[in-house]
Amino acid sequence: MIHVDALAKEFSDMKRGPVYALDHVSFDVRPGEIFGLLGPNGAGKTTCLRILSTVLKPTHGRALVAGYDVVRHPEQVRAHIGFMSNNTGIYDRMTGWEMVEYYGRLYGIPEEQLQSRLTEIFQTLQMNDFRDVLGSKMSTGMKQKVSIARTIVHDPPVLIFDEPTSGLDVLVARAVLETIASLKAKGKCIIFSTHIMREVEKLCDRVAIIHRGRILAMGTVEELTRAHGQPDIEEVFFKLIRDLETELAEI
Ligand SMILES: Nc1ncnc2c1ncn2[C@@H]1O[C@H](COP(=O)(O)OP(=O)(O)OP(=O)(O)O)[C@@H](O)[C@H]1O
Q1: By alpha-carbon position, which residue is closest to atom 26 of ligand 1?
Q2: Which residue intervals define the domain ABC transporter in the entry (predicted)?
Q3: Of 19, 42, 55, 207, which has the highest C-beta tally within 10 A?
Q4: In angstroms, what is the span from residue 43 Cα to ligand 1's centroid?
Q5: What is the DSSP letter of 7?
Q6: Of all protein residues, whose CA lies closest to atom 28 belonging to ligand 1?
Q7: Ligand 1: which atom is nearest the Cα of residue 46?
Q8: Could you report the per-residue pLDDT of 27-71, keeping only the tens digit for each?
Q9: Strand ranges across the sheet with 214-219
Q10: How confident is residue 140, by pLDDT bands cut at 50, 70 and 90?
């Protein structure tokens, strides 16, 4: 469902010169799988997810999403994905219902299907008690739910979440993770970025540890801890980052 082959992105930064945000990464994600990109700030996670969602173009390599090339067929890719960035961007003067309805129309869902789809989503995500609250009056948790609702309104087969629990309190974060798990149970192909080890352990079928734009290791949590002789994913993560930094310092 997602096929990424030697994907790279170079930015030219006024101060720093060329920045290799993504350095030839390759991976695949299957339907019914949750794939995590685990990395520190600036690792390249957002850049990778932005390329997959057609917001950015790669400087090298190829990515296919739902069978469509992100550069050659961006409209097709957009029709088959739901992308939730960590900036919820909720409109102050619209209610949750209106916002999700608006996105449903943007995706071209026929009117007669749209209302039943909204009813279903508002029930599943337990949003009925605030369906008529304006964006300006919503709590962070409410906003995050609206954001998820509009990401999934067109029932896309591929879901891309950029740090979906960032800045949320524990209860809301838990609800978001439960929603992601239920989307996997429906057979969705899910990729999400995080720097929270526990989320990876709880949710991901496979994970790629990413730092300085490179994938340092990839596999199930069990495979990675075994291969690197560490007790848990946190130790694997710090070991790999330390090793790369030592290697770079010696060059
Ligand atoms: N538009 C841009 N112009 C120049 N450099 C950029 C641009 N976007 C990202 N970068 C740089 O690319 C690198 C990777 O950034 P990216 O946002 O992908 O990391 P990240 O893993 O998502 O981290 P974070 O969790 O901080 O968002 C960083 O060094 C960042 O400063």
Answers
A1: 41
A2: 2-237
A3: 207
A4: 7
A5: E
A6: 42
A7: 22
A8: 999 999 999 999 999 999 999 999 999 999 999 999 999 999 999
A9: 81-84, 158-162, 189-194, 34-38, 206-211, 214-219
A10: confident
Sign of torsion, CA 136 195 63 179?
negative
Tokens matching residue 200: 């990876």
Residue 48 CA: nearest ligand 1 atom is 18
**Taking residues 205-234, what's their average pLDDT?**
96
197 is written with which tokens?
């080890």
Q: Are strands 81-84 and 158-162 parallel, antiparallel or unpaired?
A: parallel
Residue 2 pLDDT exceeds 90: yes
Index of the ligand 1 atom closest to the CA of residue 43: 21
Among 19, 57, 216, the mutation site with the greatest number of ligand 1 atoms within 8 A of its Cβ is: 19
R_g of the chain, CA atoms, integer Å: 19
Nearest protein Cα to ligand 1, atom 6: 11
**Gap from CA of 46 to ligand 1 centroid (Å):** 7
Task: Please state the pTM of the whole predicted model.
Answer: 0.93
Percentage of residues of the chain with pLDDT beyond 70: 100
Q: Which residues line ligand 1 (CB under 6 A)?
A: 11, 13, 19, 21, 39, 41-47
- Which residue, 140, 153, 141, 139, is CA-closest to 97? 153
Q: Supply 177's token pair.
A: 């993770």
CA of 10 to the centre of ligand 1 (A): 10
CATH architecture of 2-250: 3-Layer(aba) Sandwich (3.40)
| Residue 28: burial class (beta carbons within 10 Å; 0-12, 13-18, 19+) | middle
Q: Which two tokens stand for residue 121?
A: 């989503």
Residues ≥6 apart with Cβ < 8 Å to 174: none
